[in-house]
Amino acid sequence: MRAASRLILAMLLGALCVPALALDYRAAARSSILYDSPSAAGKKLYIVAADTPLEVVVTLEKWIKVRTHDGQLAWIARADLSDHQTVEVTADKAEIRQTPAEDAPVVFAAARNVLLRVTGPAKAGWLPVAHADGETGFARLVDVWGH
Fold first, then answer.
1. Which UniProt keywords apply (predicted)?
2. Structural domain that includes position 33
């Protein structure tokens, strides 16, 4: 009985850890400096452009540790992150389609490194996105990074 209780407790504790594995991405709210430590006194590593997608790794009160598309880890001031999400095109050319289907008409094509705003949840390998000029459609998840 005691072993069964321990097993159940271990399973419950393991289940509580699952949400921590979920990836969270946020966009830079403006051109922002990334630091090597959670302090403006830290070494300035580089600047990211507004709307650059960043993967949230650790969250502190005023600072967030993020991973960039190329795998770099750095710190950004919480105030410099937006609540909206963007993705970066990683394919040579991403065809943004009218509906989430391979045979749907292409609305526009986005070249590598173009940033697209996420407009809804991903479904079945497709992500609804909007280009800065207002065009909208669906990108294949394999063609973008940041979601």
1. Signal
2. 20-80
Q: Which amino acid is at 127?
A: L
Q: How many CB atoms lie within 10 A of CB 45?
A: 16
- Mark which of 56, 80, 104 sits at the end of a domain: 80
104 and 57 assigned to the same domain: no
Contacts of residue 35, defined as CB under 8 A and 6 or more positions apart, other chains included, come to 42, 43, 44, 45, 74, 75, 76
Per-residue pLDDT in tens (0 to 9) along the chain, 147 residues: 555 444 444 444 444 333 344 589 999 999 999 999 999 999 999 999 999 999 999 999 999 999 999 999 999 999 999 999 999 999 999 999 999 999 999 999 999 999 999 999 999 999 999 999 999 999 999 999 998
